[in-house]
Amino acid sequence: MGSRSYFPSYYSVDDIFVTQEKISCQVSSRLLKMGFLDPGCETDHLEPGKIVKLPLWYVKELKINNPYLIIQIPELYKNVHNAICEAESTNIDLGKMNMQYYEYGRYLASFDRNHSLGRILYETCRQRVRHLLTISKNTVDEIKSENKMDSIERGLYEAGIRTNTLYTNWLQQKNSKIRPSELVQEHSKKRKRFTLSDDEMSSSLQSTKRSM
Amino acid sequence: MFGDKAFELVKELQRTSETLPPFDDDGVRQVLEEIKAIFEENCQQAAAYSHSGDRTLWPLLSFRHAAIQRNKRCLLAYLYQRLQRIKAIRWEFGPIVPNDIKNSFCEPETQWFNSYSKSLATYMRSIGDGQGIDLTGDLKPPKSLFVEVRCLEDYGKFELEDGEVILLKKNSQHYLPRSQVESLIRLGILQHIS
Protein backbone atom coordinates (compact mmCIF):
# COMPACT_ATOMS: atom_id res chain seq x y z
CA MET A 1 0.00 0.00 0.00
CA GLY A 2 1.33 3.43 -0.87
CA SER A 3 4.49 4.17 -2.72
CA ARG A 4 7.94 3.65 -1.31
CA SER A 5 9.75 6.94 -1.08
CA TYR A 6 13.35 7.29 -0.08
CA PHE A 7 12.39 9.72 2.64
CA PRO A 8 9.47 8.04 4.39
CA SER A 9 6.39 10.20 4.61
CA TYR A 10 4.73 11.01 7.92
CA TYR A 11 1.98 8.48 7.21
CA SER A 12 4.29 5.70 6.02
CA VAL A 13 3.33 2.44 7.73
CA ASP A 14 6.70 0.90 6.91
CA ASP A 15 8.47 3.71 8.70
CA ILE A 16 6.19 3.36 11.73
CA PHE A 17 7.18 -0.31 11.87
CA VAL A 18 10.88 0.54 11.72
CA THR A 19 10.64 3.16 14.44
CA GLN A 20 8.99 0.60 16.75
CA GLU A 21 12.28 -1.33 17.02
CA LYS A 22 13.96 -1.34 20.43
CA ILE A 23 17.60 -0.33 20.83
CA SER A 24 19.92 -0.93 23.78
CA CYS A 25 21.15 2.28 25.31
CA GLN A 26 23.58 2.82 28.14
CA VAL A 27 22.56 5.40 30.70
CA SER A 28 25.35 7.95 31.19
CA SER A 29 23.88 10.28 33.79
CA ARG A 30 21.29 9.84 36.52
CA LEU A 31 17.83 9.99 34.97
CA LEU A 32 15.20 10.99 37.52
CA LYS A 33 11.86 9.16 37.59
CA MET A 34 12.63 7.20 34.43
CA GLY A 35 12.91 3.82 36.15
CA PHE A 36 9.69 2.70 34.48
CA LEU A 37 11.62 2.23 31.25
CA ASP A 38 13.51 -0.72 32.68
CA PRO A 39 11.19 -3.55 33.74
CA GLY A 40 13.83 -5.04 36.07
CA CYS A 41 14.55 -1.76 37.81
CA GLU A 42 13.41 -1.44 41.42
CA THR A 43 14.09 2.24 41.99
CA ASP A 44 12.29 5.22 40.51
CA HIS A 45 15.41 6.51 38.85
CA LEU A 46 17.84 5.16 36.26
CA GLU A 47 21.40 5.02 37.49
CA PRO A 48 24.45 5.54 35.22
CA GLY A 49 25.81 2.37 33.61
CA LYS A 50 22.47 0.66 33.32
CA ILE A 51 21.40 -0.74 29.94
CA VAL A 52 17.82 -0.05 28.88
CA LYS A 53 15.97 -0.91 25.69
CA LEU A 54 14.35 2.14 24.18
CA PRO A 55 12.14 2.43 21.11
CA LEU A 56 13.60 4.05 18.02
CA TRP A 57 10.88 6.70 17.89
CA TYR A 58 12.45 8.21 21.01
CA VAL A 59 16.07 7.47 20.24
CA LYS A 60 15.95 9.13 16.84
CA GLU A 61 15.08 12.42 18.54
CA LEU A 62 18.34 12.32 20.51
CA LYS A 63 21.64 13.81 19.44
CA ILE A 64 24.71 11.60 19.21
CA ASN A 65 26.53 13.57 21.93
CA ASN A 66 23.59 13.90 24.30
CA PRO A 67 24.57 13.78 27.99
CA TYR A 68 21.98 11.17 29.02
CA LEU A 69 22.25 8.05 26.88
CA ILE A 70 24.84 6.24 24.75
CA ILE A 71 23.27 4.32 21.86
CA GLN A 72 24.70 0.88 21.20
CA ILE A 73 24.76 -0.27 17.59
CA PRO A 74 23.18 -3.78 17.40
CA GLU A 75 25.49 -6.75 16.85
CA LEU A 76 23.50 -7.63 13.75
CA TYR A 77 25.26 -5.06 11.58
CA LYS A 78 28.72 -6.17 12.73
CA ASN A 79 27.78 -9.76 11.92
CA VAL A 80 26.68 -8.79 8.43
CA HIS A 81 29.95 -6.95 7.96
CA ASN A 82 31.90 -10.09 8.80
CA ALA A 83 29.72 -12.18 6.54
CA ILE A 84 30.29 -9.84 3.63
CA CYS A 85 34.03 -10.07 4.09
CA GLU A 86 33.97 -13.85 4.36
CA ALA A 87 31.36 -15.09 1.93
CA GLU A 88 28.77 -14.29 -0.68
CA SER A 89 26.43 -11.63 0.69
CA THR A 90 23.58 -13.06 -1.37
CA ASN A 91 23.43 -16.00 1.04
CA ILE A 92 22.83 -13.89 4.11
CA ASP A 93 19.33 -14.29 5.45
CA LEU A 94 18.53 -10.61 5.98
CA GLY A 95 14.81 -11.19 6.47
CA LYS A 96 15.52 -13.41 9.45
CA MET A 97 17.81 -10.89 11.10
CA ASN A 98 15.60 -7.88 10.62
CA MET A 99 12.78 -7.37 8.15
CA GLN A 100 13.67 -3.69 7.94
CA TYR A 101 17.42 -4.13 7.64
CA TYR A 102 18.15 -1.08 5.48
CA GLU A 103 15.66 1.38 6.95
CA TYR A 104 16.67 0.48 10.49
CA GLY A 105 20.32 0.82 9.60
CA ARG A 106 19.73 4.21 8.06
CA TYR A 107 18.44 5.56 11.37
CA LEU A 108 21.27 3.98 13.34
CA ALA A 109 23.97 5.22 11.00
CA SER A 110 23.80 8.67 12.56
CA PHE A 111 24.65 7.18 15.97
CA ASP A 112 27.58 5.10 14.76
CA ARG A 113 30.78 6.58 16.16
CA ASN A 114 33.00 4.49 13.87
CA HIS A 115 31.22 5.70 10.74
CA SER A 116 31.29 2.19 9.32
CA LEU A 117 27.57 1.40 9.33
CA GLY A 118 26.81 3.50 6.28
CA ARG A 119 29.44 1.65 4.28
CA ILE A 120 28.13 -1.72 5.43
CA LEU A 121 24.61 -0.86 4.29
CA TYR A 122 25.89 0.36 0.96
CA GLU A 123 28.03 -2.72 0.38
CA THR A 124 25.27 -5.19 1.28
CA CYS A 125 22.84 -3.44 -1.01
CA ARG A 126 25.33 -3.17 -3.89
CA GLN A 127 26.18 -6.85 -3.76
CA ARG A 128 22.61 -8.08 -3.42
CA VAL A 129 20.67 -5.96 -5.88
CA ARG A 130 22.22 -7.53 -8.95
CA HIS A 131 21.29 -10.95 -7.64
CA LEU A 132 17.72 -9.70 -7.11
CA LEU A 133 17.52 -8.61 -10.73
CA THR A 134 18.62 -12.03 -11.93
CA ILE A 135 16.20 -14.02 -9.82
CA SER A 136 13.22 -11.78 -10.55
CA LYS A 137 13.88 -12.14 -14.27
CA ASN A 138 13.98 -15.90 -14.00
CA THR A 139 10.92 -16.40 -11.83
CA VAL A 140 8.08 -16.86 -14.26
CA ASP A 141 4.80 -17.83 -12.66
CA GLU A 142 4.23 -17.55 -8.96
CA ILE A 143 6.10 -15.39 -6.49
CA LYS A 144 8.04 -17.82 -4.35
CA SER A 145 8.20 -17.18 -0.65
CA GLU A 146 11.91 -16.67 -0.43
CA ASN A 147 12.68 -15.47 3.04
CA LYS A 148 16.19 -14.28 2.62
CA MET A 149 15.10 -10.72 1.87
CA ASP A 150 14.32 -7.65 3.90
CA SER A 151 11.14 -5.72 3.15
CA ILE A 152 12.67 -3.29 0.64
CA GLU A 153 14.33 -6.10 -1.28
CA ARG A 154 11.07 -8.02 -1.28
CA GLY A 155 9.29 -4.98 -2.73
CA LEU A 156 11.91 -4.69 -5.47
CA TYR A 157 11.71 -8.41 -6.18
CA GLU A 158 7.92 -8.40 -6.48
CA ALA A 159 7.97 -5.28 -8.66
CA GLY A 160 10.54 -7.00 -10.88
CA ILE A 161 8.40 -10.08 -11.32
CA ARG A 162 5.26 -8.03 -11.95
CA THR A 163 6.91 -5.91 -14.63
CA ASN A 164 8.32 -8.99 -16.26
CA THR A 165 4.92 -10.71 -16.42
CA LEU A 166 3.28 -7.57 -17.77
CA TYR A 167 5.94 -7.39 -20.45
CA THR A 168 5.56 -11.02 -21.57
CA ASN A 169 1.77 -10.69 -21.54
CA TRP A 170 2.04 -7.65 -23.75
CA LEU A 171 4.37 -9.46 -26.14
CA GLN A 172 1.96 -12.38 -26.39
CA GLN A 173 -1.06 -10.06 -26.58
CA LYS A 174 -2.65 -11.79 -23.65
CA ASN A 175 -3.94 -8.68 -22.02
CA SER A 176 -7.15 -7.88 -23.88
CA LYS A 177 -9.48 -9.71 -21.49
CA ILE A 178 -11.32 -7.69 -18.89
CA ARG A 179 -10.55 -9.14 -15.50
CA PRO A 180 -12.45 -8.72 -12.25
CA SER A 181 -10.84 -6.19 -9.95
CA GLU A 182 -8.48 -7.56 -7.32
CA LEU A 183 -10.28 -5.87 -4.44
CA VAL A 184 -13.57 -7.40 -5.55
CA GLN A 185 -11.99 -10.84 -5.81
CA GLU A 186 -10.55 -10.64 -2.34
CA HIS A 187 -13.85 -9.43 -0.96
CA SER A 188 -15.84 -12.25 -2.52
CA LYS A 189 -13.31 -14.78 -1.23
CA LYS A 190 -13.76 -13.37 2.25
CA ARG A 191 -17.54 -13.47 1.89
CA LYS A 192 -17.40 -17.10 0.83
CA ARG A 193 -15.30 -17.95 3.85
CA PHE A 194 -17.82 -16.26 6.11
CA THR A 195 -20.84 -18.00 4.61
CA LEU A 196 -18.99 -21.31 4.73
CA SER A 197 -18.18 -20.93 8.39
CA ASP A 198 -21.80 -19.93 9.01
CA ASP A 199 -22.98 -23.11 7.32
CA GLU A 200 -20.58 -25.18 9.38
CA MET A 201 -21.83 -23.48 12.53
CA SER A 202 -25.46 -24.17 11.77
CA SER A 203 -24.80 -27.77 10.74
CA SER A 204 -22.78 -28.42 13.87
CA LEU A 205 -25.56 -26.81 15.90
CA GLN A 206 -28.09 -29.10 14.30
CA SER A 207 -25.97 -32.17 14.95
CA THR A 208 -25.58 -31.21 18.61
CA LYS A 209 -29.33 -30.71 18.85
CA ARG A 210 -29.89 -34.09 17.28
CA SER A 211 -27.50 -35.78 19.67
CA MET A 212 -29.33 -34.17 22.58
CA MET B 1 5.34 1.17 27.25
CA PHE B 2 3.95 4.40 25.81
CA GLY B 3 2.85 4.23 22.19
CA ASP B 4 2.30 0.47 22.09
CA LYS B 5 -1.47 0.71 21.81
CA ALA B 6 -1.22 3.17 18.94
CA PHE B 7 1.22 0.87 17.18
CA GLU B 8 -1.19 -2.03 17.60
CA LEU B 9 -3.81 -0.05 15.65
CA VAL B 10 -1.51 0.40 12.68
CA LYS B 11 -0.24 -3.18 12.88
CA GLU B 12 -3.74 -4.61 12.95
CA LEU B 13 -4.72 -2.56 9.91
CA GLN B 14 -1.63 -3.70 8.03
CA ARG B 15 -2.38 -7.36 8.84
CA THR B 16 -5.77 -7.24 7.10
CA SER B 17 -4.41 -6.21 3.73
CA GLU B 18 -6.59 -4.58 1.06
CA THR B 19 -10.15 -4.75 2.39
CA LEU B 20 -11.28 -2.71 5.34
CA PRO B 21 -11.54 -4.02 8.91
CA PRO B 22 -14.17 -2.37 11.15
CA PHE B 23 -13.15 0.96 12.66
CA ASP B 24 -11.49 0.36 16.01
CA ASP B 25 -13.41 2.89 18.13
CA ASP B 26 -12.16 1.50 21.40
CA GLY B 27 -8.50 1.42 20.36
CA VAL B 28 -8.58 5.00 19.12
CA ARG B 29 -10.24 6.19 22.32
CA GLN B 30 -7.62 4.47 24.47
CA VAL B 31 -4.79 6.13 22.55
CA LEU B 32 -6.45 9.53 22.87
CA GLU B 33 -6.73 8.99 26.61
CA GLU B 34 -3.08 8.03 26.84
CA ILE B 35 -2.09 11.20 24.98
CA LYS B 36 -4.20 13.28 27.33
CA ALA B 37 -2.72 11.68 30.43
CA ILE B 38 0.87 12.19 29.25
CA PHE B 39 0.11 15.77 28.24
CA GLU B 40 -1.30 16.65 31.64
CA GLU B 41 1.71 15.21 33.48
CA ASN B 42 4.07 17.07 31.20
CA CYS B 43 2.17 20.32 31.73
CA GLN B 44 2.49 19.98 35.50
CA GLN B 45 6.22 19.37 35.33
CA ALA B 46 6.78 22.17 32.85
CA ALA B 47 4.97 24.52 35.25
CA ALA B 48 7.12 23.26 38.12
CA TYR B 49 10.25 23.89 36.05
CA SER B 50 9.33 27.49 35.37
CA HIS B 51 9.10 28.05 39.14
CA SER B 52 12.20 26.20 40.30
CA GLY B 53 14.44 26.15 37.21
CA ASP B 54 15.27 22.53 38.03
CA ARG B 55 16.52 20.80 34.87
CA THR B 56 16.86 17.25 36.22
CA LEU B 57 13.51 16.20 34.80
CA TRP B 58 14.25 17.30 31.25
CA PRO B 59 15.00 13.82 29.84
CA LEU B 60 11.69 12.56 31.20
CA LEU B 61 9.89 15.55 29.76
CA SER B 62 11.38 15.02 26.31
CA PHE B 63 10.67 11.29 26.42
CA ARG B 64 7.02 11.93 27.20
CA HIS B 65 6.83 14.57 24.50
CA ALA B 66 8.22 12.11 21.95
CA ALA B 67 5.58 9.62 23.12
CA ILE B 68 2.80 12.13 22.48
CA GLN B 69 4.11 12.74 18.98
CA ARG B 70 4.48 9.04 18.35
CA ASN B 71 0.88 8.41 19.39
CA LYS B 72 -0.32 11.24 17.20
CA ARG B 73 1.59 9.92 14.22
CA CYS B 74 0.22 6.39 14.62
CA LEU B 75 -3.35 7.67 14.96
CA LEU B 76 -3.11 9.89 11.89
CA ALA B 77 -1.45 7.14 9.88
CA TYR B 78 -4.26 4.79 10.89
CA LEU B 79 -6.93 7.21 9.69
CA TYR B 80 -4.99 8.10 6.55
CA GLN B 81 -4.42 4.48 5.50
CA ARG B 82 -8.11 3.77 5.97
CA LEU B 83 -9.02 6.74 3.77
CA GLN B 84 -6.68 5.45 1.06
CA ARG B 85 -8.45 2.11 1.17
CA ILE B 86 -11.90 3.69 1.06
CA LYS B 87 -10.78 5.68 -1.96
CA ALA B 88 -9.63 2.50 -3.68
CA ILE B 89 -12.96 0.87 -2.85
CA ARG B 90 -14.81 3.71 -4.64
CA TRP B 91 -12.76 3.10 -7.79
CA GLU B 92 -13.04 -0.66 -7.73
CA PHE B 93 -16.60 -1.24 -6.57
CA GLY B 94 -18.23 1.90 -7.95
CA PRO B 95 -20.61 4.17 -6.04
CA ILE B 96 -22.57 1.27 -4.52
CA VAL B 97 -20.58 -0.58 -1.90
CA PRO B 98 -21.50 -4.03 -0.54
CA ASN B 99 -23.13 -3.78 2.87
CA ASP B 100 -20.51 -5.71 4.82
CA ILE B 101 -17.84 -3.22 3.70
CA LYS B 102 -20.09 -0.28 4.42
CA ASN B 103 -20.57 -1.52 7.97
CA SER B 104 -16.82 -1.22 8.55
CA PHE B 105 -16.94 2.54 7.94
CA CYS B 106 -17.29 4.84 10.90
CA GLU B 107 -19.68 7.79 10.66
CA PRO B 108 -17.20 10.43 9.38
CA GLU B 109 -15.83 7.89 6.93
CA THR B 110 -19.29 7.30 5.46
CA GLN B 111 -19.67 11.05 5.04
CA TRP B 112 -16.27 11.27 3.41
CA PHE B 113 -17.05 8.39 1.07
CA ASN B 114 -20.32 10.01 0.00
CA SER B 115 -18.77 13.38 -0.72
CA TYR B 116 -15.78 11.81 -2.49
CA SER B 117 -18.13 9.75 -4.60
CA LYS B 118 -20.13 12.87 -5.42
CA SER B 119 -17.07 14.93 -6.36
CA LEU B 120 -15.78 12.16 -8.57
CA ALA B 121 -19.13 11.80 -10.34
CA THR B 122 -19.41 15.57 -10.83
CA TYR B 123 -15.92 15.67 -12.30
CA MET B 124 -16.57 12.75 -14.64
CA ARG B 125 -19.77 14.43 -15.86
CA SER B 126 -17.99 17.72 -16.49
CA ILE B 127 -15.26 16.38 -18.81
CA GLY B 128 -15.48 14.98 -22.33
CA ASP B 129 -17.18 17.86 -24.20
CA GLY B 130 -20.33 17.88 -22.14
CA GLN B 131 -20.88 14.13 -22.58
CA GLY B 132 -19.03 12.96 -19.52
CA ILE B 133 -16.44 10.19 -19.38
CA ASP B 134 -16.51 7.21 -17.06
CA LEU B 135 -12.94 7.17 -15.83
CA THR B 136 -13.42 3.82 -14.11
CA GLY B 137 -14.20 2.16 -17.44
CA ASP B 138 -11.98 1.11 -20.35
CA LEU B 139 -8.96 0.43 -18.19
CA LYS B 140 -7.51 -1.55 -21.07
CA PRO B 141 -7.73 -0.38 -24.68
CA PRO B 142 -10.84 -2.04 -26.17
CA LYS B 143 -10.22 -4.36 -29.11
CA SER B 144 -13.83 -5.02 -30.02
CA LEU B 145 -17.20 -3.39 -29.41
CA PHE B 146 -18.86 -6.58 -28.24
CA VAL B 147 -17.66 -9.21 -25.82
CA GLU B 148 -18.71 -12.74 -25.03
CA VAL B 149 -19.56 -13.14 -21.36
CA ARG B 150 -20.67 -15.92 -19.04
CA CYS B 151 -22.79 -15.17 -16.04
CA LEU B 152 -21.32 -16.31 -12.72
CA GLU B 153 -24.31 -15.65 -10.48
CA ASP B 154 -28.05 -15.01 -10.73
CA TYR B 155 -28.06 -11.27 -11.25
CA GLY B 156 -31.60 -10.78 -12.57
CA LYS B 157 -32.77 -8.38 -15.24
CA PHE B 158 -30.32 -6.03 -16.92
CA GLU B 159 -31.43 -3.26 -19.21
CA LEU B 160 -29.18 -2.25 -22.09
CA GLU B 161 -28.95 1.32 -23.32
CA ASP B 162 -31.16 0.60 -26.31
CA GLY B 163 -33.96 -0.51 -24.00
CA GLU B 164 -33.60 -4.24 -24.47
CA VAL B 165 -33.90 -6.20 -21.24
CA ILE B 166 -31.97 -9.42 -20.82
CA LEU B 167 -32.07 -11.92 -18.01
CA LEU B 168 -28.67 -12.68 -16.48
CA LYS B 169 -28.96 -16.22 -15.13
CA LYS B 170 -26.14 -18.28 -13.70
CA ASN B 171 -24.08 -20.06 -16.38
CA SER B 172 -25.92 -18.36 -19.27
CA GLN B 173 -23.78 -16.88 -22.03
CA HIS B 174 -24.33 -13.57 -23.80
CA TYR B 175 -22.79 -11.42 -26.50
CA LEU B 176 -23.05 -7.86 -25.23
CA PRO B 177 -21.67 -4.34 -25.84
CA ARG B 178 -18.35 -4.08 -24.07
CA SER B 179 -18.84 -0.62 -22.63
CA GLN B 180 -22.08 -1.57 -20.89
CA VAL B 181 -20.94 -4.76 -19.22
CA GLU B 182 -17.40 -3.83 -18.24
CA SER B 183 -18.39 -2.76 -14.73
CA LEU B 184 -20.26 -6.05 -14.20
CA ILE B 185 -17.16 -7.96 -15.21
CA ARG B 186 -15.08 -5.87 -12.80
CA LEU B 187 -17.54 -6.72 -10.03
CA GLY B 188 -17.15 -10.43 -10.77
CA ILE B 189 -20.78 -10.97 -11.84
CA LEU B 190 -19.88 -11.71 -15.46
CA GLN B 191 -16.81 -13.47 -16.74
CA HIS B 192 -15.16 -12.38 -19.96
CA ILE B 193 -14.61 -15.41 -22.21
CA SER B 194 -13.03 -15.33 -25.62
Fold and architecture overview:
The complex is a heterodimer of chains A (212) and B (194). Chain A is mainly alpha-helical and 212 residues long. Chain A has two domains: 1-72, Methane Monooxygenase Hydroxylase, Chain G, domain 1; 74-194, Methane Monooxygenase Hydroxylase, Chain G, domain 1 (Up-down Bundle), CATH 1.20.58. Chain A has eight helices and three strands. Chain A has helices at 13-18, 56-59, 75-86, 94-97, 101-109, 117-138, 151-171, 182-211; strands at 22-27, 51-55, 69-71. The radius of gyration of chain A is 25 Å and the shape is extended. Residues 207-212 of chain A have low confidence and may be disordered. Chain B is mainly alpha-helical and 194 residues long. Chain B has two domains: 4-129, Methane Monooxygenase Hydroxylase, Chain G, domain 1 (Up-down Bundle), CATH 1.20.58; 146-193, Ribosomal Protein L9, domain 1, CATH 3.40.5. Chain B contains six helices and five strands, in the order αααααββββαβ. A three-stranded antiparallel β-sheet of chain B has the order 4-1-5, covered by helices on one side. In chain B, α1 (4-15) runs parallel beside α3, α2 (25-52) packs antiparallel against α3 (58-93) and α3 (58-93) crosses α5 (107-126). The longest helix of chain B has 36 residues, at 58-93. At the A-B interface, α1 and α8 of A face α1, α3 and α6 of B. Chain B: Pfam families: PSF1_C (PF24997), Sld5 (PF05916). Chain B: Residues 34-127 form the GINS subunit domain.
